[in-house]
Amino acid sequence: MPTENDCQSPSLGETRRTPGRPRVSETDRRAAFIAAARELFVEGGYAALTTNAVAAHAKASKRSLYEAFESIDALFAAVVAEHSVEMLREPPDDDALPLEEAIAFIFNLDIDEASDRYRAAFLRAAMLDQERFPQSHAAIVEHGIDPARRRLAGWLEQQIEAGRIVDENPDRLARLLMDLIFASSRFQPGSTEDWPEREMRAEHIRWCVRTALRGLQAQ
């Protein structure tokens, strides 16, 4: 007679090898845990990232979770690293693209409405958690903000060398652009949205970029 464990459906990372059924790859298993953790973080903040919750959301076991990530902090670092690329894309490899359009591309100003809502929700959760869970803020800086700024600074340095913008410190220029653009996406508890329509916010950000570029473009 089959036992209770025999009747349970196999979980991610523990799938029994049966003829014709491929084993779940390590890459797919990690991706499933990252996706589960992202959803939990957006919905409930860092406090929602427990081993039980992440494993259940990924339809996996806690053992397979620890095989993929040594700790919840390591998992959250992977979540932030993935989100960082969505916040700031890799700069375009097109020197003919106008600076305003290149910056709009890097900062994902033309993403769809669902992605925009998700990005705002991630930022909201991050801001609300930064005092209660300092380790989450540290991970966001180390694995999200700093790498994104370095990518942007590297691209700006190329634009300086090409004579497209004035010769200023590229890291400081990257900080300026990130402060300028992300200020319109910040969530302040208890406040109302300055730009209730995403199209209005996107146009305002583009105006900020154009205004900044008028002071940066080489004559």
Automatic annotation (TrEMBL):
Residue ranges, annotated region (Disordered): 1-25
Pfam families xrefs: TetR_C_7, TetR_N
UniProt xrefs under SUPFAM superfamilies: Homeodomain-like, Tetracyclin repressor-like, C-terminal domain
Superkingdom of the organism of origin: Bacteria
GO MF terms, alphabetically ordered: DNA-binding transcription factor activity; transcription cis-regulatory region binding
DNA-binding region: 50-69
Bias (Polar residues): 1-12
Keywords (A to Z) from UniProt: DNA-binding
Domain HTH tetR-type: 27-87
Protein name: TetR family transcriptional regulator
Annotated source species: Ancylobacter novellus
Phylogenetic placement of the source organism: Bacteria, Pseudomonadati, Pseudomonadota, Alphaproteobacteria, Hyphomicrobiales
